[in-house]
Amino acid sequence: MADAEKGGESTLTVLVALGINLAIAAMKAVAGAITGSAAMLAEAGHSVADTCTEVFLLTALRRSGKPADARHPFGYGKERYFWSLIAAISIFVSGAVFALVEGFRTLFGEPQEQTQPLVGYLVLALAFAMEAVSWLRAMRQVRAEAAENGDTILHHLRVSDDPTVKTVLLEDSAALAGLLLAFAGLGLHDLTGSSAWDGLASIAIGVLLALVAYTMARTNLALLIGQQADRRLLVAVHRRLGEQPEVDSVVDLLSMNVGTDRVLCCARVDFAASLDSTELERAVVRIDGTLREEFPELDEVFLEPVPRNDPDLRARVLARYGHPL
């Protein structure tokens, strides 16, 4: 999938989720006020958090596409990870904390009387149908990207360097699960007359949102601090380097994701001793072009000539990877 096409697909996925979450948040807030249900109010907070998340993700998509400049020679790709991290914090602060507070207030405070539960049931059913539309949209994109890379969906979610669609899919999955929890709390409160069920459902929603926020934050933390590129890409680059006639051995290969589908690659290579300086320069230029043509995700390529038997370099590589060259 081309970068522009993939970026447009991600933007559309986020916009669909934003519109749906905004409408659902309003419906849940009204239903929560009418029914007095803590779980319904927790779900309203959940949808407000999701709406804020989509705004942060749209910011991430826009700002990460800025071209490189003198102050940021490797571009602004990592802004996508920063704003996605802020989205995770938003889910925790405005979603999980609110739901937990509502749950404990209902569970340990004065018993809450439930009114017009039918309104709650109708709103939850409509919200579930609308969330399913957003979830299917995100799942369709994730499935297509996974198929393109020959991955399973779970493996793709684990290794993908694009946190935006993963975030939408996670929050929509949590939203569907949260709606089922709210429905259970509302129904059990209606059947038993005890608001404790409502409070427990709200607490469960808060825990669910906290887990989603933690998963998102952990993903973006790894990308922000310099996670290496997909292992399959590194293996392919290593193999292609080793096949070049001027290369005796690939001594070390360093990489870092500097944005979605953008990789910084530094290779330490033992070139053939017979090469003179002019031949070495030509070899470096040719190999750089070969790698960029075959692997378009390589944003920058650095080739450093080094001797393979250098003891200090060998020790550093062993300390980093824990296996011999």
From TrEMBL:
It is found in: Membrane. Residues 14-225 form the Cation efflux protein transmembrane domain. GO terms for molecular function: monoatomic cation transmembrane transporter activity. The chain crosses the membrane at residues 12-31, 81-98, 118-136, 168-188, 200-217. Its main location: membrane. Coiled coil: none annotated. It comes from the Bacteria. Keywords: Membrane, Transmembrane, Transmembrane helix, Transport. It is a multi-pass membrane protein. Signal peptide: none annotated. It holds the Pfam family Cation_efflux. One of its GO terms (biological process) is zinc ion transport. GO terms for cellular component: membrane. NCBIfam families: CDF. This is Cation diffusion facilitator family transporter. It comes from Saccharopolyspora hirsuta.
